[in-house]
Every structure is written in C-alpha cells, then in structure tokens.
Amino acid sequence: MRKERKETQRREIFGKALKRVQDDVEVRVRVGYPITGYGQESRNRAARQRIPNRAWTDEEGVEHVEVNFYIRGPNGAGKVFGEMYKDKADNQWKFTYLKG
Fold first, then answer.
1. 61-91 pLDDT, tens per residue?
2. By Cβ atoms counted within 10 A, which residue in 19, 32, 42, 65 is the most buried?
3. Global pTM?
4. d(Cα 40, Cα 45) in Å, to the nearest integer?
C-alpha cells in the first residue's frame, strides 16, 4: 500500500511539473504546442512511461521528490529537471525548482 501511495505522489508531481512546463510561454515558443512529457528517449513504451525520480525525507521530516523527464513539441524537444517538497503547513506539494 505504501509503495502505491509513493507512486501516486510521483505521478502527481510529474503531472504538476509537466503542466507548469506546458503553460510556460517561453517553452511554447521554443518547442511549440502541444507539449508532451515522457520518461526516456526510447521507442520502448515502458521506458517512455517510467519517469526517473528520487524521493527522500530531509532531517526536518520534509518529503522531497526530484523528477527529470523529456518534453517534445512540434518544433523541438528538451529535458526538464524539477524538485518539489511537501509543505507541512498546508500539506501541498510545492516547487523547489523547475528548469529545462
């Protein structure tokens, strides 16, 4: 059950990061729209669906998840790196950083 919860969190974080990238005007100008996100540059569907990530809890008990994934649009492609943490005050995931 705990593993399923972690997987759900990671998918939620990937979804938030991808949405932020899709909504970014500069990214749209460079790669076009629509923008898709995926795990690895591969023709293998399973590899494309697997989003590389790392989860940990810091010394203050705050949960962190780091993700990196590829994006593609009609005019180009890129790689995105992001980290989110779970804010103890409101129990919501917030970005530490998101860059491409």
1. 999 999 899 999 999 999 999 999 999 999 9
2. 65
3. 0.81
4. 9
Q: Which CATH number fits domain 2-99: 2.40.10.10, 3.10.450.320, 3.30.379.10, 3.30.300.20?
A: 3.10.450.320
Q: Is the pLDDT of residue 35 over 90?
A: yes
Strand partners, 99: 81
**Cα–Cα distance list, 5 to 28, 47, 78, 84 (Å):** 32, 21, 29, 16
The dihedral through the CA atoms of 36, 66, 53, 10 has a sign that is negative
Cα–Cα distance for residue pair 95/86, rounded to 1 Å: 9
Cβ-Cβ contacts under 8 Å for 86 (sequence gap 6 or more):
62, 63, 64, 92, 93, 94
